[in-house]
Structure prediction request, 335 residues.
Amino acid sequence: MKALVYTGVEELTYRDEKDPTKVSGESILKVHASGICGSDMHAYHGKDERRIPPLILGHEVSGKIQNGKFKDKNVVLNPLITCGKCEYCMNGREHLCPNRVLLGMNRPYERSGVFAEYVSTPNQNIYEIPDRLDLSEATIAEPTAVSLHAVLMGETSLKKPLKECRTLVQGAGAIGLLCSLILSKIKGNKNIIMSDPNKLRLDVCSKYFDGKFVSPNDKEVKENSFDIVFDTVGLEVSRQQAISVIKPGGSIIHIGLTQPSGQFNFRKATLQEVTFIGTYCYTNKDFEKTIKILADKEIGDLSWIEYRELKKGAEAFKQIHDGSCSAPKIVLLPE
Ligand SMILES: [Zn+2]
Ligand SMILES: [Zn+2]
Prediction:
């Protein structure tokens, strides 16, 4: 099969790779479409110790199953492979499984990713999709589930309904946009400010929901003025801003993780009862809900997804890297 292989730092090679072999308890997916995620970019930059070249990256995927009990079904994969036996798996918090591994990783063990024509997947990770859900659009199930989980974590932490909140979403990438769409179209929040230094990206997002679209140093983004902040960036500078602009009793939802450590204003957090929530991935239930949300078009038009050929994937990575691409999500299509 053809695959886009991560062969070295900032280097991807489109080449022939061995087809996946049939393993008991698993099925082979013929990939229809696969999305490029921020974490793939992180690996591409050589900054991920769980993704060491050579490796086929990618974990956001839709396609048709080739064999076994799901044969010929159109599906999406939940790329998070968990043990099914630990305390977290037994209590509906599978994403916290200490034995979890994601497609497109090779540490602690190899799990080939989805930037390829075929991929092997455990059967429990296969989710059939309804006919009314477009197979290409279904690729964004995974980042949508990440965003849904983050919004739900935020919602349960607050003492007032989300729709009454003044909300800051930092970052106009896929997760920032998806959180905003869920907040705006499902939760009825009409007071969303989205911030990003990249005006191109803000302009794209501004076509898809009602909000204000500003640079991070705009006067709208002022101290003690937001009930909830979604940091989808995870830089020291975005976290510092989040803690400064959050209102007393507000919640900071931290999803991005570009810089893993830094300063934190514990004084404000304590004296003003600020809730700080780190959030990672999604539960299996969130993933199921997401498929329904996408099938029922609850987050509206998805024409912000940009499609490219898998064989030109290296170029797409380069453009995301140098900021010349403004699409919140690029999805790759094998021939
Ligand atoms: Zn992802
Ligand atoms: Zn587990």
In short: Residues 99 and 262 are 27 Å apart (CA to CA). The mean pLDDT is 96. The two ends are 11 Å apart (CA to CA). The chain has two domains: 2-128+304-333, 144-278.
